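Fold it.
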Amino acid sequence: MKKIALVSHGCAKNLVDSELILGILTQNGYEVTLSEDETDVVIVNTCSFICDAERESISTILELINKGKKVIVTGCLSQKHPDELKQEIPEIAAVVGATDFNKIVEVIKNIDNNYVCEVNTKPNYIYPENVERQQITMGASSYIKIADGCNYRCGYCVIPYLRGDYHSRKIEDIVSEAKKLVKKGVTEIILIAQDTTGYGMDIYKKPMLPKLLEELNKIEGLGWIRIMYAYPTTMSDELIDTIARLDKVVKYVDIPLQHSHPEMLKLMNRPAFDYRPLIENIRKRIPNVSIRTTFIVGYPAETEEHFEHLKNFIKDMKFDRVGVFEYSREKGTPSYDIKPRVPKKIAHRRYKELMEIQQQISYERNKSFIGKTIPCIIEACADNGEVVARSEYDAPEVDGVVSIKTDEIVTPGDIEQVRIVGATEYDLVGEI
């Protein structure tokens, strides 16, 4: 039986898919590895959200082919460009669509014979509940995909065309997976989807994230529950109050807003209303909440007036965490043909301006923690006694960390009370 290697690119949602692919292979008797040097067959799970991500995925494919590997390409890039991939890189052994990874075993069986292409032109993501994920990253935290696909058609986003419409998983399946992860030693569960707040609308006919949180909150041994990717119009009072009430749900709201000016929001196919009351409502109902958001600059037709509106909005709202992205023009998206286009140089200047504003806001906020004692999850311990942790106000990989010096013995995954003694623009310094 062959040993199969896998290389994973892209977001946390793609990481879960990679872990499912490894689970399918293991279930079918294959030996799996993350080291391509140990085998001649390598699966590359690609990302295609923006051009840079595509370039990174293609670079990996070419590198592996140059090493003489048989490369199976799956994920978003194969869904977006199945024919072009084979034309440009004829050495590819097989291409599998972003929602077709259940066919991966059949593909592997046939790659010694002929090139195989398994890409459904109408992607339809159904989570394979009978597969146990083989986790690539096992630490304090683990992601759970509660749904996939998307019913929105935001102007800049190619994902609905690669993943299909929104499909929720059943509450009992998600809770069962969470319990298994906790038994393996996971302390923090992070709920992900293209839109977590729309969870349940398709199968239960009403938003069910509050109910899901209630059920997850009952799991013994689970420390924290974190929600990512909320959508403005489905951030209901019921959901906000549930986050505030449940002790294991961290007081952290990740709600990508993308812009503040109604004209830009309309062009982006986003909810075009004033977001101030929504943010104020979240802050009022969830004491000490941390709000993370993201914005896009340089979107087609964004004027200096639009940008000034966004700048003032960020200054006024003082978000705890902000990510800023320069617009990336992607074929197949509604924004592809919108004019006038914003020159890259101007988009980059706007990006830098917003980051400088937010850096100061973040620094002032971080300084306010000095002298306070807050719960932090231990992520890693170095031999020299330095410990890397994360507060409940920080999601892994996208937000800050807490650097701790201590003589105490701590274990990754433990939640410790940490006294904050220092702050930088994005990170904290603490002691136990």
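The chain has a mean pLDDT of 93.
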